[in-house]
Amino acid sequence: MRLARDRRGEISLFALGPLTNLAHALTIEPELPMLLHEVVWMAGRDRVPGNITSQVDTDTWHDPEAAHAVLGAGFRMTMVLMDATNHAWAGEQWFGRLARHGSRQATYAHDVVGHYLDFYSRFDVTRRGERGCLMQDPMAAVLLVEAEMATFENHAVSVELAGTYTRGMTVVDLRGYDTTMDPTSSRPPIRVATKVDHVGTKTLVIDSFTSRSGDINTTDQISA
After folding, report:
1. pTM for the model
2. CA 157/CA 78 separation, integer angstroms
3. Which of 1-10, 20-29, 128-137, 148-157 has the lowest mean pLDDT?
4. Looking at the domain that runs over 2-86+137-195, which CATH code has it been given?
5. Where are the domains of the chain?
């Protein structure tokens, strides 16, 4: 918050996981939405199934109240939904190329992802055709600096707080109504990423680990 006050309008916040800390910060500094340049959050789902329940993703499920508060606070905010990140599959060929580069950063990234490769191999190999994992967090990080790699829509987003089977569900209002048509539509619009160039984002991710040596062409099409 101190940095946000000192550098008003300059700081972008990239959020992964529940928004508990950001919601708490709002209670201390209600002007925070005006102090930050933007917030990018990888979470939520709309037209695809959730990954905790059929309707709920991990990040909103852990703290629905925090998510609902932040989404309604008036931040200049982008949500990168599971609808977009579910296509960000990286297979063994991609990870093998990363490992072969041999830089300290690339080796570390390859090693720490082993847990996720094991996790996804339990249920996704048959569907995807190879061992790998979703690159959801890196894809969202790319959009923080390369927003043109995604297609966006502006919608009000709420979070279900009371449903027996839907608590934590992100409710994306696709109607486009304003308060003259629906008095309950008072929540601010959120920029929602609905489609992402997953090949291009994976190219940028791998280049971020390899660009120092210059031996990987960022125009290569790195397939999943």
Report:
1. 0.85
2. 11
3. 128-137
4. 3.90.245.10
5. 2-86+137-195, 89-134
